[in-house]
Amino acid sequence: MTWVPVRTALIPERDAVLGLKPDVYDALRTLLMLTWQTTDSRLLDLCRLLLAQMVGARAELAGADEALLAEVENWRSSPAFSERERAALSFAEQYYFDHKQITGEQKEELACHLNRRDMVNFVWALHMNDAYARVLSLLDIEPDPPSSPRRPERVRDNRPSATASGSRPPPRLEGKFAEIDPEFFQAYGALGRIVVRQTLIDEVTSEAVRLHNANHQGCLY
Amino acid sequence: MDAVVAYEQSEGLTESQRVALRLHDAFLIHPGRLDAVVQAETLEHFSPAQIVELAFKFMYWSSNRPVVTLGIDAPHDRNRLTSFHYTEKGEYVVHHAQD
């Protein structure tokens, strides 16, 4: 079980722990649901499982098809995957270890199968799933009880209710973010606005983490 | 930035800030192998809700990874350090040179 002391008697541990920050958790789940529609859901699912294996996110692996997990774990030698899927898995694996070391060859290999817009949305979808798996792993969240219903954000091809209801999509973006799915970008912005308004962690500590992250990630912002 | 990069040696940070950065290092490098000492320190310095808030902040700040990967990151101003703030609604406002 998680090392974070919470009461989990009535609800799955994931909801009990992450629900300590309910507004962030809700926004994150919406964003994760959107990732299924902004990129190829089969590619994302394979890469999501690979990331969960590498990061040790047992909550993400529970309930997955055992045979598929074995193939994903041995994707380099497995005949189960197409060239397109292998290119995505190779990219995802390096993304996990160090995104700054993704080679030109790995990018070109993926670009043979995805156009620029698809590549951009694949990377963002991959990233959100990587970050989520890291949170689950860091807090050592245990799998949901077997009797639990499937999580909407973990079901391929599921859509957030706002999208499913046919509400008007946001306008296309411009500039360097022009290729990102506008609905995803809107949800990502909403998540960010909620995260930065959280105040249990003081501003100096938050800023220290932000700078520490930027230094580690090689970000120029 | 120097204090944050060499945070273990920095006198400008409190112990709880150093613990937050140790936990962040685990998130960045291998979250599934969190050191028992860091785990205990985290529980000593932070409440459960604060720990989850930290984890969510780690997650959100890490979103510069896709930006770097896609080659679309760039400084706001190459000639100076740019400051910014968040509004009450959480909107990101950059302070440009003329501000």
Kindly summarize this structure in a few lines.
The complex is a heterodimer of chains A (221) and B (99). By secondary structure, chain A is mainly α.
Instruction: Give the overall shape of chain A.
Output: globular
Given the C-alpha coordinates, what overall shape of chain B results?
Answer: globular
Query: Can you give the helix content of chain B as a percent range?
Result: 40-55%
Uncertain regions of chain B: pLDDT < 50 for 5+ in a row?
none
Number of strands of chain A: 0
- Helix vs. strand class of chain B: mainly alpha
Radius of gyration of chain B: 16 Å
Estimated share of beta-strand residues of chain B = 5-15%
Task: State the share of residues found in helices of chain A, binned by percent.
Answer: 55-70%
> What structural class do helix, strand and pairing data of chain A support?
mainly alpha
Low-confidence stretches of chain A: none
Count of individual helical segments of chain A: 11
Fold and architecture overview:
Chain A has 221 residues and is mainly alpha-helical. Chain A is 59% helix and 0% strand. Chain A has helices at residues 13-18, 22-38, 41-55, 58-61, 66-73, 83-98, 104-111, 116-138, 161-164, 182-196, 203-217. In chain A, α2 (22-38) packs antiparallel against α10 (182-196) and α3 (41-55) runs parallel beside α6 (83-98). Chain B is mainly alpha-helical and 99 residues long. In chain B, a hairpin with a 5-residue loop joins β1 (84-86) and β2 (92-94). In chain B, α2 (15-29) packs across α3. The radius of gyration of chain B is 16 Å and the shape is globular. The two termini of chain B are 23 Å apart. At the A-B interface, α8, α10 and α11 of A face α1, α2, α4 and α5 of B.
